[in-house]
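Ticket opened by: R.M.
Priority: normal
Category: complex prediction / small molecule

The reporter submitted a protein together with calcium ion and asked that the result be attached to this ticket for the collaborator who will pick it up next week. Submitted input follows.
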Amino acid sequence: MLQVKACGLSDVGMIRIHNEDCFEIDAQRQLFVVADGMGGHSHGEIASRIAVESIREFVDRALDQDQTWPFAYEANFQHHSNALKSAIRLAHNSVLTAIQRDVSLHGMGTTVASFLLSRDTAAVAHVGDSRVYRLREGVLECLTQDHTWVNEQVLAGFLSEDQARTHPLKNVVTRALGGDAEIDVDLQEIDVEPGDLYLLCSDGLTTMLRDSEIQGLVTEHRSLDKICRLLVQEANSRGGLDNVTVLMVRVV
Ligand code: CA
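Result attached by the on-call engineer:
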């Protein structure tokens, strides 16, 4: 089994009062999650926490035991990938249930970006605009497509990536846990190689730094802890308009 080292850091930023992001590192399961909550008051914090805990709990159970599978099993994906996708769908249900129980939570939601490694295959699954990047042989590549209005415009050729990054509607996500009754989770399997570095992050990083700038920082330093601190520092030095969360996973 490939071994990984991981490090995460979450910061409230320079403007916001609450940090509605959260992350999870489950070294035993090789599960890594970033969630970026949204909602009035501090409700985004509740949504992202519910999602992360719900995902961790289901993945833990699904990898250990035979159990009733909650959704259709997709035979073209490995077991752990099915586990991760189902975990996110259950997390969506958990957020909806919390909203049904407490009407004041109405409108809360959260993104999820997740990475679950089994042998040499990583399941990468996400909803919303939190991202998963891979650095391999010095090249940083974004593995996920943001579920945002601006990214839809980029894909259709109406906006450039730079215009999207600073667009007034850049925060409009088109998919989130806690939104519509049905959730559509993007899932892919990645062949992982020793030396790969994966970055999971919230949009508080990617609206402040270009991909080329992130690549510069992650290739310049070895220590994961230092890279996390520098990425957060850089986002904050440019204004820190949002909560910023970074989670690095190195395959050794
Ligand atoms: Ca955010």
